[in-house]
Write a structure and sequence with these properties.
214 residues; Outer membrane lipoprotein wza fold like; wza like fold; 4 helices; 10 strands; elongated
């Protein structure tokens, strides 16, 4: 009987220790973002942003005094356009001004001193500059980058977090920093209104929202 009593006492202590350990672990998991990544900088930096054209954009090409050469054309999936007297022109990754100058060079073979203006419509942008949101967002998707775009802007666009999201465990994978990963506090930002958790995004950022383990 004595041996049984000691075994029961040891078992109770073991179970108690395991429960305490589980509670400590649970508290650590719920306390906030993972400490394995540095916090995302509040300001993205990088200077002024110049929009470059991507597949899916629309281009309104206006040729001064030559309305028959003016046209509105889509940028094809291969990043090229076709327009009057311009059979093929690669435009993806270029600004509207750069495209206008290249169209002028093409038209100069047929028109004397052409003056071209290119206006971008239906902004999509190149894949390398789109913001991607994956994981436990209400509507995971890609978004065209906009200058001064913030984490809050992104979360509004994707409809917030799911009920299973570990918001404070989310990270930003930033290709412009050599694929460096930063932690962000989505739960504090969205659920608690903590504006100090809002940070600026950079072109090509990937926002990863994991599922909560508890």
């Amino acid at each position: 009987m004595r041996t049984l009593s000691l075994s029961s006492l040891s078992l109770h202590r073991l179970i108690g220790g395991a429960l305490v350990g589980a509670l400590v672990l649970l508290g650590g998991c719920a306390s906030g973002p993972s400490g394995s990544f540095p916090p995302a900088p509040a300001a993205a930096g990088g200077g002024d942003y110049n929009y470059v054209i991507g597949a899916g954009d629309g281009l309104n090409i206006i040729v001064w005094r030559n309305p028959e050469l003016s046209a509105t054309v889509p940028v094809r999936p291969d990043g090229k356009i076709s327009a009057p007297l311009v059979d093929e022109l690669q435009v993806q990754g270029k600004t509207s001004v750069q495209v206008a100058r290249e169209v002028e060079k093409k038209l100069a073979q047929y028109v004397r001193d052409p003056v071209v203006t290119v206006i971008v419509t239906g902004f999509v942008g190149p894949y390398s500059e789109q913001i991607r949101v994956v994981g436990e967002a209400a509507r995971p998707q890609f978004l065209p980058f906009k200058q001064k775009m913030t984490l809050l802007d992104v979360m509004i666009a994707v409809g917030g977090l799911t009920d299973f999201a570990d918001g404070n465990g989310a990270t930003i994978l930033r290709g412009s920093d050599g694929n460096k990963q930063y932690s962000v506090r989505l739960r504090d930002l969205i659920k608690r209104g903590d504006v100090s958790a809002n940070v600026e995004m950079r072109p090509g950022d990937i926002l990863i929202i994991p599922q909560s383990l508890f």
